[in-house]
Design goal:
By secondary structure, the protein is an all-alpha fold. It contains 12 helices and no strands. 74% of the residues lie in helices and 0% in strands.
């Protein structure tokens, strides 16, 4: 028993990583064996794409960490898999990316595996609902993924790192702490400022990669229709952008970044744009 305790104390990251993988395997077995839930995200091409996606995540993510940039860009491969394979495949890709990254190059990457899991999961469901079929809606998908990442990552940043992490965005957190904000508000505000830029960019980059794949090759993945682009109408573009802006303003107000009066003014303006766009879609033009 003492040898086991010494092994755990000497290699805590490895033990925790193996435990995470073991829990995922057991949960997978129980769900597929004893429930009616079926995972249709995985075929031979999915398993072939996941290692490539993991390599993309780790390579770009490590460059960003080394350069101390105020973004992450470590989920491009995760979103790529999530869109054309499904949410569970995306979740597995994100989780394994951070586990492998933490074991091989940067131990600080490991604690964020729950964030990576939900990034892949939410991106996959966004794709199922058609948010990756139009360029204007990719921003909506990116923002929803960003909001999820901000919520999940805030407790990790507070409890494990005390609010200051190894990423380049920590200088924003440090500044907000100096202005008198509490650690929870400072960390969430930082995440809310950085994550939308990062995840919307990630979503667009993943979509560009998907559009560059040959259609015959793309069709062999489990859910290729989720990444097939449709044409955007003027009304669709305006409505989608307005909805994103509406969510951003509301979330900024809740996080304490935006004053109440300015938030109300911008929300009212966005509602006017959305209503006028809907009326125009149905052929009504005010005189």
């Amino acid at each position: 028993m003492s040898k086991i305790i010494d092994l755990i104390q000497a290699n805590p990251t490895v033990i925790v990583a193996l435990s995470v993988v073991l829990v995922i395997i057991i949960a997978w077995f129980v769900i597929t064996k004893f429930t009616k839930i079926k995972f249709n995200d995985f075929n031979t091409l999915t398993w072939a794409l996941i290692p490539v996606a993991i390599a993309i995540n780790i390579a770009i993510g490590q460059i960003v960490v080394t350069l101390k940039l105020p973004v992450y860009l470590d989920s491009i491969g995760t979103v790529l898999v999530a869109v054309i394979c499904g949410p569970w495949a995306g979740a597995v890709t994100g989780t394994l990316s951070n586990v492998i990254w933490g074991l091989t190059l940067d131990p600080n990457a490991f604690p964020w595996w729950p964030v990576a899991f939900f990034i892949g999961f939410v991106a996959g469901w966004c794709a199922k609902f058609g948010l990756f079929k139009r360029w204007s809606r990719i921003a909506v998908a990116g923002f929803l993924v960003a909001l999820t990442a901000a919520i999940v990552s805030t407790p990790i940043g507070v409890f494990i790192y005390g609010g200051i992490t190894a990423s380049g965005s920590s200088f924003i957190t440090a500044y907000l702490l100096q202005t008198g904000q509490g650690v929870w508000q400072a960390v969430f505000s930082t995440n809310f400022l950085v994550e939308p830029v990062d995840k919307i960019s990630t979503a667009f980059l993943a979509a560009i990669i998907i559009q560059g794949l040959p259609k015959r090759y793309l069709a062999r993945f489990p859910q290729p229709e989720n990444g097939q682009m449709e044409s955007d109408s003027y009304a669709t573009i305006v409505a989608d952008i307005s909805i994103v802006a509406l969510i951003v303003v509301f979330a900024a107000y809740l996080s304490g970044i935006m004053p109440y009066e300015l938030a109300i003014l911008l929300l009212a303006a966005e509602m006017v744009i959305i209503v006028s766009t809907i009326l125009r879609t149905f052929g009504y033009t005010p005189k």
